[in-house]
Amino acid sequence: MSINFCENDSSHDYRVISKKGECSCFPEGISQLRILFISSMTETSLTQAIYEESHKCIKVHHVHGCDEAMCVLRVQNFDAILIFHASPHRNALEIMTALRTGGIHTPVLVLGTVPASEMFIPCSEAGAGDYLCVTVTTVQDLIWRMARVVQYHLWRQENMRWKQENSLRVCCEREEVEKSISQQRQILQQISAEDGTLTGQALPQNFVTHYQQLLKTYILMGTGNLTVELQNFGNLLAESGVSANQVLELHLQVLTGIIHHLGTKSCRHIMQRADLLRLEILIHLSNSYQKMNK
């Protein structure tokens, strides 16, 4: 079914010409649509053609201008808005600007007699999902384009929802990790106060740098890949007389720095790997002291 457009001196005449052959009227994921059609036509064969060609799966509500459209959109929801561009009396670009200013973010498809090469970019910049020239399109093409515009809008909404959920999840994870690090520091301070050891003693910078590299590598490679390096570092700590409390302080210091530079990335995985590294380092430190005391 194709759309023929004729212009007389005083009115527009839309004639819909049926063609043989049928095809599915929606892309996958779209089953029904409610469309708000903004045009100056009192009755349109196009509206009926869309309804019939879509096998009654598209319902079109017709309004005559932007003000009437805004009134309808305040009380009803639509899957898409179809605007017939007839400048200067009914400028689709101005209508879209008014809709967006009014807080209406329903996807828009624009129809008109101006070639798509002249109108597609201005319509896209104004926020339309697509533009179709009625002289070179068909009703079936219009139906598919409307469905695609709606589908793309749904994808964007889903993507934005996923980003918001992911951002919230990362923030929650960061709060959990920071709370866990704070609790570990408190426990370390309490234990150090009970056994009379000092906290806050800075280890040599080469120890800090070495542990930073070990932790970063451990986060990427995981357990079992740095066994020799961890044993050597444990021996180095034991030979330097570093206590378990100092190792824990070093661990928390380096871990805090890494978490701070993560930005929007998830830190739960970092924390899990860091806990495993801390355990391995303390085991190697304990084994090194045992060997030295034999």
Provide structural commentary.
The chain is of the alpha/beta class. The chain has nine helices and seven strands. The chain has helices spanning 45-53, 66-75, 92-101, 116-126, 139-195, 205-221, 227-239, 244-260, 268-293, and strands spanning 2-7, 12-17, 33-38, 58-63, 80-85, 108-112, 130-133. The chain has a five-stranded parallel beta sheet, sandwiched between helices. It has a two-stranded antiparallel sheet with strand order 1-2. The protein is rod-shaped and about 100 Å long. Residues 4-23 have low confidence and may be disordered.
List keywords for this structure.
7 strands, alpha/beta, two-stranded antiparallel sheet, 9 helices, five-stranded parallel beta sheet, rod-shaped, 13% strand, 58% helix, 294 residues
Helices, strands, pairings?
Elements: E1 2-7, E2 12-17, E3 33-38, H1 45-53, E4 58-63, H2 66-75, E5 80-85, H3 92-101, E6 108-112, H4 116-126, E7 130-133, H5 139-195, H6 205-221, H7 227-239, H8 244-260, H9 268-293
Parallel strand pairs: 3-4, 3-5, 5-6, 6-7
Antiparallel strand pairs: 1-2
